[in-house]
Amino acid sequence: MKHSLRLRVLMASGLILLISVALIVFSVMKSFERAQYDLIKKELAAGANVLLTVASVTDQQLVMPHLMPDERFNQVESEVLGLVLDKQGDVLWRSHSSLDEILYYSVQFDEHTTNFARYSGPEGSYFLYDIDILLEGLPLTFLTMIPATEYKEVFIAFRSNLLLSLSLTALLMMVVLWYGMHWSLIPIRKLAGNLQRIEAGDTNRLEGVYSSELVALTDALNQLLNNERQQRERYRDAMADLAHSLKTPLAVLQSAQYSQTLKNHGENENVGAVIDEQVHRMNQIISYQLQRALTRQRGLVRHRADVADIVGRITRTLDKVYHDKRVELNTDIDAGIHFPAEEQDMMEVLGNLLENAYRLCLHQVQVSSHTLLQDGKSWTVCQIEDDGAGVPESRRQAILKRGVRADSRTKGQGIGLAVAMDIIDSYDGSLSISDSELGGASFTIRLPL
């Protein structure tokens, strides 16, 4: 999941949604706060104007009616408070709702002005609105107040509801986005599945209808696969033609040398042996170089070669070749195990290793194969053992090089193991040599799945 396209899009979308929700909350709360302030200001201003309307001055004394037109000033439990102050800030009149309130508000009289503010004092926090006016020569301040606690409760409730609503909306949007991503990535998952089928060798091209954005890609991949397949076929054909063209004159040369040897009644037997040896060596070198070139031509397709089938076909042939030796073959191959390689390549590798085991063993050859999980990676492991003389530790690396033979007592040019090593390398595998429990050598092949 670390490199998942869907996860990256969801994380980016989630971050954008989080930032958007934060900006929306900030903007809406600011707007709500301004709207509340305006509403409270209008409410208090209306109350102050009511007080001003009913007030009168007689002999420089303020006269207020016993009952106010606005019932809120007549109710003791009302949240709206009304007061009339003189220029020094002394209370000249207060509404029934403010009888129990102690006011520490400092009046700064400024004729014909109004003031709206939030006031905090020992008695609590209030919103207040005052009108400073000279009424028949008497400086008066008409003051209305409302506790800020009610506004704070409304503000907190609104903010909680807003956050809850936006959070649920964001969560719903994330769910919709997840399903949208799942639906949108169907063509890409289809493409990935078809590529896996190609790697597994189940098909040789991308099949099906793809969205217009992927058509150019799928067409290019199909063209690449087709070109790669045709190139491999042409390469194999060319190599086969080259091998045939080279081997024919070599065979003629070998035949001519043999005829000349018979004609001279053995007089040039040493020369003939040298020529025969060199011709045989040239033949093996040609085969090695051709096989080496072919093993480096790996394409996109991942092949599967059944281990038990290959081992069975090779050993049945070797049983006939070494019939007189009566080799005892033991196999321990897990069911369904396979090499992630072309069958022809693994026939070459196991053919070389098993032929060496049959040729150099005393009586026993053992083949085992299983799957190994190591460092989070799966491997196909195949081990070939014999009870022969084994391979000295000092020569184990050397015999995997071209031209070095494991057994100098037998004919050959040391090409087989080098070919096998090149093939295994082309599949990012490894070939190691160790001592076998049977007493001889143990050759272990490891190929990554």
Automatic annotation (TrEMBL):
Q: Which SUPFAM superfamilies match?
A: ATPase domain of HSP90 chaperone/DNA topoisomerase II/histidine kinase, Homodimeric domain of signal transducing histidine kinase
Q: Spell out the GO cellular component terms annotated for this protein, sorted alphabetically and separated by semicolons.
A: plasma membrane
Which residue stretches, if any, does this entry annotate as coiled coil? 214-245
Keyword Lipid metabolism appears in the UniProt entry? no
Ranges for domain HAMP come to 182-233
Which Gene Ontology molecular-function terms are recorded?
ATP binding; phosphorelay sensor kinase activity
What Enzyme Commission number does this protein have?
2.7.13.3
Describe the reaction catalysed, as an equation.
Answer: ATP + protein L-histidine = ADP + protein N-phospho-L-histidine
- Start and end of every Histidine kinase domain? 241-449
Pfam families reported in the protein's UniProt record: HATPase_c
Its keywords, alphabetically, are: ATP-binding, Coiled coil, Kinase, Membrane, Nucleotide-binding, Phosphoprotein, Transferase, Transmembrane, Transmembrane helix, Two-component regulatory system
Q: Where in the cell is it found?
A: Membrane
What transmembrane ranges does the database entry give? Answer: 7-29, 126-149, 161-181
Q: What is the official name of this protein in its record? A: histidine kinase
The major lineage groups are: Bacteria, Pseudomonadati, Pseudomonadota, Gammaproteobacteria, Oceanospirillales
